[in-house]
Amino acid sequence: MLFWRVKPLDLILETAEQKALTRTLGAFQLTMLGIGAIIGTGIFVLTAEAATRAGPAMMISFVIAAFVCAVAALCYAEMAAMVPVSGSAYTYSYATMGELVAWVVGWALVLEYAVAASAVSVGWSGYMVGLVREVLGVELPHALVAGPFDRNPGLVNLPAMGIALLITWLLVLGTRESARFNAVLVAVKLSALGLFIVLAAPAIQAENFEPFMPNGFFARTVIDPISGNLVTVGVAAAAASIFFAYVGFDAVSTAAEETVNPQRNLPIGLIGSLAICTLIYLGVAAAATGSVGAQPGGALAQSREALAFVLREVGHGWAGDLVAIAAGLALPSVILMMMFGQTRIFFVMSRDGLLPPVFARLHPRYGTPHVVTLTTGVFVALFAALFPVGQLADISNSGTLFAFFTVAVGVMILRRTQPERTRHFRTPAVWVIAPLAAAGCVFLFFQLSGATELMFLGWAAFGLLVYYAYGRNRSHMATVLRTRTG
After folding, report:
1. 207, 211, 212, 479: least surrounded by Cβ within 10 Å?
2. pLDDT digits over 179-188, tens only?
3. What is the pLDDT of residues 315-346, one digit of tens each?
4. What are 269-314's pLDDT values in tens digits?
5. Beta strand 220-223 with 230-233: parallel, antiparallel or unpaired?
6. Within the chain, how many helices (H) and strands (E) appear?
7. Rounded to an integer, what distance in angstroms lies between the CA atom of residue 475 and that of residue 469?
8. Where are the alpha helices (DSSP H) in 174-234?
9. Helix, strand, coil percent values for the chain (each to nearest 5)
10. What does the alpha-carbon distance between residue 114 and residue 110 come to, in Å, rounded to a whole number?
11. SS3 for 198?
């Protein structure tokens, strides 16, 4: 049953072979693409969440998350080079482990993309609310800028809801970033982080790193001193949350078909972008921790705009405002790409017959999949309105870790079942790297909170009900198999 209805790679590749892309991307372009995709809400916002869970030892958490991403990225690259078509891990799973696993992966990718878009929306809201307060002197009502599940509960996060709906409208119209615009946003983000490190680093004091690991290494549940709720803390728990800060590197692997000499340039782009982002993240974490302290329950841990808060605390309010502006400019593009990815996953699943055909319907004027875009947009806006960024990031990570796990397993399966197939990129030391990637994903998954794990299992169970009620008998692979056996 597990390997039921495996979709042949040759069938998947037919479309790609008909529309071969020109190989123009080198190692530098791939590295810049990866940096642009990776740097987003994770570092601008989750620094505060990491302080809550790990204290100053969050720097170790950044390294752990980066390592798991690196070994998963090498597996992703091999699959992307073999199956250079839309669908991401959903398509790869369909080709290796069959329709049932592919469905669960596609369903999990909703958590990766849609919930991640909600998390970025909440992160954007925090910076914008702080900017309005500092620049205009206007304090927005707390009830309208925090959801009911926040550590300091409100009624609804209207700014987060608003930006999600605005991006949904733009996607229906067909608005997409140009390469030049994306390059400008990458420069804005890197400049903001560089400015933060330069100004915050001189304020570092050794005593702010003590105690270095107040909550220990492995995940454990304690009572939050602020909200009184149960929270999961520890260096490993922070790594499972910070994992969100690296999501986006798969944008490099999806460019496999357009890469010059992919055997050489793909690993450089993947590992290079991850290495550069890790160094930047460590610099930011060290500067934030050393300048204002990062103890659980402290001022940094409570901030909704961590980097701007640090700069204001060390006497550079003007720079804090610039960082907030940079976040306000750059983060909506991340929301757009997350939602774009989500709508395209559902679009492919609908085209395969696993979801109703209405989700594959295109707008008569704009030519965009407007039904699935609007459905996704409402989902994203509601989650952004109700949940805090830390919970959203954890929920997103649960889906991402499951998808990455299946890619690592899929690489090993194809090495055994189809060793003769051409691989434009081969995962080095695959029988070491792929098991490490799978084990790393499992380890981080079980460092998430019990509530997050249960939510993921509940979402997967609901997805299976949808599959057996609809997709199982309507999938195009089912039609093909009935035709062959008939």
Report:
1. 207
2. 566 677 778 8
3. 999 999 999 898 888 888 788 878 877 887 88
4. 888 888 898 999 999 999 999 998 888 878 887 787 889 899 999 9
5. antiparallel
6. 21, 2
7. 12
8. 179-200
9. 75, 0, 25
10. 5
11. helix
- What pLDDT shows up at residue 358? 85
Please state the rounded mean pLDDT for residues 441-453. 92
Contact at 8 Å (CB) between 212 and 220?
no
DSSP string, 146-170: S-TTSSS--S-BHHHHHHHHHHHHH
Give 130 or 483, the one with higher predicted confidence: 130
DSSP symbol at 222: E
Q: Is 349 in contact with 355 (CB distance < 8 Å)?
A: yes
Greatest CA separation found in the chain?
76
pLDDT digits (tens, 9 = 90+) for 43-66: 777 888 888 888 899 999 999 999
- Cα gap 265→92, rounded to integer Å: 21
Quote the radius of gyration of the chain (alpha carbons, Å): 22
Place of tokens 């004027």: 365
Q: Distance between CA atoms of 31 and 44, rounded to whole angstroms?
A: 20
- Reading the block at residue 150, the tokens are 């926040």
Preceding amide of 56 cis, omega within 30: no
Q: Which residues contact 316 (CB under 8 A, 6 or more apart)?
A: 199, 200
Q: Please, which residues have CB within 8 angstroms of residue 21's CB and are 6 or more apart in sequence?
A: 84, 257, 258
- Is residue 370 packed enough to be buried (19+ CB in 10 Å), middle (13-18) or exposed (0-12)? buried
Domain at 23-485: CATH code = 1.20.1740.10
Give yes or no for a cis peptide into 211 (omega within 30° of 0).
yes
Query: How many angstroms separate the CA atoms of 171 and 349, rounded?
Result: 19
B/e letters for 286-307, b = 16+ CB within 10 Å, e = fewer, are: bbbbbbbbbbbebebbebbbbb
Residue 115's identity, in one-letter code, is V
What integer pLDDT is reported at residue 11 of this predicted model? 67
Kindly state the DSSP code that residue 81 receives in the 8-state scheme.
H
Report which DSSP code applies to 21: P
Cα–Cα dist 160/146, whole Å: 9
Q: What distance in Å separates the CA atoms of residue 3 and residue 467, rounded to the nearest whole number?
A: 16
Distance, in Å, from the CA atom of 110 to the CA atom of 55, rounded to the nearest integer, reads: 31
Residue 267: which residues within 8 A CB-CB, separation 6 or more? Answer: 74, 77, 425, 428
State both tokens at 57.
Answer: 């030892």
- Are 77 and 256 within 8 A, CB to CB? yes
Distance CA 101, CA 103 (A): 5
d(CA 64, CA 255): 26
Q: How far from the centroid of its chain's Cα atoms is residue 127's Cα?
A: 19
Q: What confidence tier does 1 reach under pLDDT thresholds 50, 70, 90?
A: very low
